[in-house]
Amino acid sequence: TAATESLPPTGSGRVRAVRSHRLSSVLSALILSALGCSDVPTTQRCDEPDNSCNRPFLRSTTPLSALRHPDPMLRVAEGTPVDARNLQVTAYDELDETMDGDLGTVYVQETIPVGTSTDPFLPCPLLPDGLARVCGISTFNTQFSPLAYRPKIGDLVDMSGGQYDEFDCSGVCGSPPQPFPDGRFLPQVREPTIRSAGVAPLPAPVRVTVQDLMTHNAALIGVLVEVSNVTAVGPADRRGEIQITADRNGPKLTQEMTAIPGVAAGTQWSRIVGVVSYFYGPKLIPRSVADLTPAG
Q1: How far apart are alpha carbons 289 and 269 in whole angstroms?
Q2: Is the separation of the CB atoms in 283 and 277 below 8 Å?
Q3: pLDDT-based confidence at residue 222 (cuts at 50, 70, 90)
Q4: Euclidean distance between CA atoms 111 and 89, whole angstroms
Q5: Residue range 74-83, pLDDT digits in tens
Q6: Would the pLDDT of 84 be above 50?
Q7: CA 233 to CA 99: how far, in whole Å?
Q8: What does the pLDDT look like over 247-258, one tens digit per residue?
């Protein structure tokens, strides 16, 4: 999470209410058009799902697909300025779990075409309907424009002014400092400015298994996922993390965005939705209690 000004949340004046009976008819178009995928040919931009189009479409100069490419030779270099447009907010960390004002991380996704790859996780994870992929990333030390804007889940946003960063904890984590193992890193956009650009229905979360969170963690970082049949190995540790496999280095639930009370060994959930992250191991971050469906 990142420190930001303590200003009250407010909605964007550009976001209009959407009648529920219209959502299904616009969803497919929004995913690959309203989200403004830089790889999808288009000359229009729909900022809101009410057909208010015919606006100039400004392409991203650094789409998330370039930041999240699995090949380091094709991925943009650290420190590259980021200008990414029509990203969709999947989560916003408003919980000050350490009581020190440390909040403000925004998780965003970009929807891109399936492409020629048959891999369900690369170059970015495949959506459940198989019609598109989503590339995700989080922000650090985020600024907002206008200053009082605070993103909501589903918001479309433009991101500029930040730099691509591959945070690996070198020199800053632990005593003595210990970098992440095996050359791992957390991809982030550092010190960006996020501007409201509209709102749209979210695509369905990427469906994964607990094992996928471990095996394909690098590709899933920043992506909204749904995991079925999750069991806690024990109560939360001193960091507030909940182990969900026998492997101590395996995926853990975190309470960065919401408290998860009453967890004990054997606590089960039939379904958990959350964004994927990494910090010395894979993390699954539910956004609210509503993201956790108890078993039974």
Answers
A1: 12
A2: yes
A3: very high
A4: 12
A5: 999 999 999 9
A6: yes
A7: 27
A8: 999 999 999 999
